[in-house]
# Entry
Amino acid sequence: MRDRYSFRCFCLRFTLSLLFHKTIVMQGSTIEQPQITVNLHSGHPDHRFFGIALFLIAESSIFLGLFAAFIIYRTIIPVWPPEGTPELELLLPGINTIILVASSFVMHKGQAAIKNNNVSGLKFWFSITSVMGIVFLIGQMYEYFHLEMGLTTNLFASCFYVLTGFHGLHVTFGLLLILAVLWRSNEEGHYSSKSHFGVEAAELYWHFVDIVWIILFTLVYLL
Amino acid sequence: MTTVVASNYTAHKERKWTDYFTFSTDHKVIGIQYLVTSFAFYFIGGAFAEVIRTELATADPDFVTPALYNQFMTIHGTIMIFLWIVPAGAAFANYLIPLMIGAEDMAFPTLNAVAFWLTPPGGILLLASFFVPNGAPQAGWTSYPPLSLVSGVWGEEIWILSVLLVGTSSILGAINFVTTIFKMRIPDMDLHSMPLFCWSMLATSALILLSTPVLAAALVLLSFDLIAGTAFFNPTGGGDPIVYQHMFWFYSHPAVYIMILPFFGVISEVLPVHSRKPIFGYRAIAYSSLAISFLGLIVWAHHMFTSGTPGWLRIFFMAATMLIAVPTGIKIFSWSATLWGGKLNLNTAMLFGVGFIATFVMGGLTGVMLSSVPFNIHVHDTYFVVGHFHYVLFGGAAMGLFAGFYHWFPKMTGRMINEPLGKLHFILLFIGLNITFLPMHKLGLMGMNRRIALYDVQFEPINLICTIGAYILAVSSLPFVINILWSLNQGEKAARNPWRAYTLEWQTSSPPIIENFEEEPVLWTGPYDYGTDSEVVNEEETVDDMLAEVGSQLRYRS
Amino acid sequence: MKIPSNIITLIVGVVITLISLWCGQNHGLMPVAASYDATQVDSIFNFMMSIAIGLFLLVEGTLVFCLIKFRRRPNDQTDGPPIEGNVPLEIFWTAIPTIIVFVLALYSFKVYDNMGGLDPLISNNTPPQQIAMDGNHKQVALGIGTSANESGEIVPLMVKVQGMQYAWVFTYPETGIISGELHVPKNRPVQLTIAATDVLHAFWVPQLRLKQDAIPGRNVTLAFTSNREGDYPIICAELCGAYHGGMKSVLHVEDEETYAQWEETNKPIQKASLDKTVAVNPENLSGGEFLRPYAHKMGIDKETLALIPHP
Ligand code: HEA
Ligand code: HEA
Ligand code: CUA
Ligand SMILES: [Cu+2]
# Structure
């Protein structure tokens, strides 16, 4: 707007081309229409990916809030974890972590497959991912049932269950997304190298859940 | 002649009145739904305020019991913030953003409808809390534990659920606004030829996306403490109530800017149109919104100067808070400069616009006083604070809301508003506002704390003045309601562009057709380039006329 | 007569400055100041009042002037001048508030420091602890006031303050007095250790301009020296339940002798006198006669008192 002259000129040029466009149509002529990118009544460009990214920003904020609370407790409570907290077993969650991280790579192979129009490859890799996700959840359940503390045992236990539980919910949701993709991929031609938003969205979400787990694991188990 | 063109558009669906009561995905319907819902809650919240003021007219708790008083006070604050100002901001954003950028709808219409339909259940749930055992929540809109944990479990839990619903709604809305603004502008509208309202909604949405989820986290933890027996915030179980305060204010300080920024945007639209001058300092206003949102994220502990904040941190939060005066001042001064030398059309919208600046400045200045630690220690949790935030919320956000309401009423309804009634509304509201909230500052300084049903008799006379002011405010909504009802039925039919404004929403019919524009709107000038075309603009000028005019000029030149 | 516009600007500026300076000193909005720190707070408030009134008059004056001078004449459909900005002006009105804000922040910092807000012993954050009902708190956290050890000569009077729904209880560890009201001698440093047994409360004496939340699970120190005799209200400033408004007590600042006398008469600690102190409490409340009917609802009874930690 600072550069008023060129701005005006631009507007004039634009309106003029539009004017031509109209005249042409009015004459009912079949001359090729001028190339104006008119976003309006033509098909909707896909903004869903952008939307998902914004949603994940909001999601990270929730986790950030919870992690921040955890870190504050960690720093201000004199004895942390409070006396009487059982030691956390590292082996099972460690394996679980490896499975979850690995599943992200497996999943990526599925996306690579669909980029080559290889639907059966997509199905194959996504099935493996979903199995890995299920194994992770079962492992988590196993840990819950074998821990010698409950939700209300002490502050650390509460934090532990709320953080891992909230993350577990996200894993479950991601798993549902993957299963939905698998379901849809049965439909002939639903996913192709050109159109596979569902695949990408599920994958982005899964990576997000993965990263959150790495932070969570470091904070709660390792530190 | 134009049949070929028209044929593309005749297939438009007709708008049915039932659309407004059902799951419609049209952004304009959703905008109106938000607006009407929020005003319904405004009247409920306002009625509660009148209960509060009636109780406080005398020093004794004689009108309602102290416990009930706290319920009304809590619900008043919650409704006014979460169910009035925040959804009203979303209402304008929904209605205006697609129109202003020349799009036919929001980026995610269905998501948009979902976001809206989370709001009424949230509000109804909140009101229903009066009927559970122990009644509505009593811990104030801040719900500090441990009090919130021990005064009525179900009321508090309902409060949490309701705020979570409304919060989710506002997050989903923000996703939509940002995507729409970034992705759906007509091709030659770049970020810097976008109306300032869109800028302010970008800043608002950023705050919503970053801070509302933290509130959700806090409320989830609070909820666990409440019903699952954990002790995140409960010292008897080893937790710490201060952690809740940090998490709460990490959202709720940005929330005050979530509540004011959309209306900063509204004011930036209203003032130039009615003073027939370009906005003064477009970029300064646009960027100061971003500066406010950034600073808004790092000042939350100024609400906690007397609780558990170490000394050096208080100093940091004080300095950061004071800095916000600078970008806000840029806005205030730029708006004043926009008025300066203009041709001010003093209609209702404009009066509310100028009234907004006048009262918001008052609230802002007391805000800066509050941020000074040694002084804050004296006035924290007193009526000085109550005075401050009603000036910024009622005198700021609400006045801006009314300005926008009167400004876009013709666009939204196709009818002009009745000006004399509108002016009466403004005058009563402006007078009532100052009578109600100005004396509160004195009360606070003298030693009256907030959130009390019974107070020291020495404060009775001033409280009586406040109560009278509050009644004037209640009366002020009478001309408002009458005006709307009358204008909807009898008002003069509004033209396409009654204010001769340059932003795109005025290029379509009033009210706009479904999917907004007959034909691609034309960005033939910047949003505020008043005064550059010296000739008188024809009221009924259509896009075709403008095109013809531009075309002939060009032909003449070449 | 035509007066040049810069002269008008000058006159307006001088008038606004004078008005705001005067108002900043003579607003009469604050209650009496009962300590040196309180007068310091007042001086910063006066300073802020002057600035605020100046800015307020400036903005409102501009608005009113515009409303009158630049209103649209009937039938005038033309636009105003297309002014889109003015860089020097914009720099000016960015710089001035920045400077004001810096000065204000520095001044606030100084006053806060003088009040002892940055005293390492007092304002340090120390961890919260699980509330144990034996009330055996040892930690000190986040308060304000010059810590006793530093202010030197006079040994400060130590008092433990307990906030509970809906009463204040003051314990004097040296003499063993437990009282519902706070008695302190004039000009002697007082160091309060504030705690809460149930929910958040806040200890506020408007005349001292001091307020500190009582946080369950933490002990907070608040130090002051009052230099003015009188009875001042102690108000609970943090919402703590239905009768939050009634949670009041009195601070008696007395001369040396009266205080010694009070100490003498209240010294013997027995359970009986304990009941009596609190039962007497509501009657002494300034303007608080209305409270009496609520005393039983407020839960001030033997059960509550039993919860009070004994020294
Ligand atoms: C719309 C809502 C809104 C807005 C915009 C603001 C704006 C500001 N607020 Fe306010 N505030 C609230 C809503 C809002 N507030 C609410 C609801 C509470 C109470 C919550 C509760 O406890 O229930 C609160 C409480 C509150 C507190 C805590 C008080 C306490 O409880 O102890 C503080 C302290 O710093 C504060 C400061 C500020 C500041 C510095 C601004 C600044 O943004 C103001 C900036 C504006 C100006 C300064 C005016 C214009 C500028 C100029 C003319 C330039 C020149 C000015 C100077 C150089 C000073 N606010
Ligand atoms: C946008 C926010 C907003 C708005 C607009 C208002 C508006 C008003 N508020 Fe509110 N208020 C808050 C936000 C708001 N408030 C918050 C956040 C708190 C803190 C709560 C807490 O401490 O937790 C608070 C607290 C608060 C208190 C302090 C309570 C206490 O600490 O004990 C008081 C006291 O006077 C008060 C009064 C008023 C009054 C008189 C109005 C008036 O402006 C209201 C005017 C309303 C009307 C005029 C509507 C009238 C309608 C009718 C009477 C019905 C008629 C019906 C039809 C016409 C159909 N408010
Ligand atoms: Cu104790 Cu309010
Ligand atoms: Cu704030």
